[in-house]
Amino acid sequence: MVDAIKSTVNRLEMTKGRASDGRPAGAGASPAPVAPVGDSVKVSDAASSKVVSQLAEAPPVNSEAVRRIKDAISRGEYPINVDRISEALMDAYRDMKA
Known about the structure:
Elements: H1 2-16, H2 45-57, H3 63-75, H4 82-97
């Protein structure tokens, strides 16, 4: 499984280094500059303190779901989807490389 992930990463890195027509990235015409988008949000002090106090009262955890998962793990019945895990790892890797 590790070898499959390594080969996938290597293919992604090789593909990332080429333009769509097979030339190395950066060769030829340069892309047009992109203007930054400037959205901003400001949260008032009253709103942020209200949210903090609500989160401090009860954590946003589904205790019933946690109990079911713990029970399934203890019985050895928790399903592990290796494909889903590897996809999530690859997505995280791509995000880190970007």
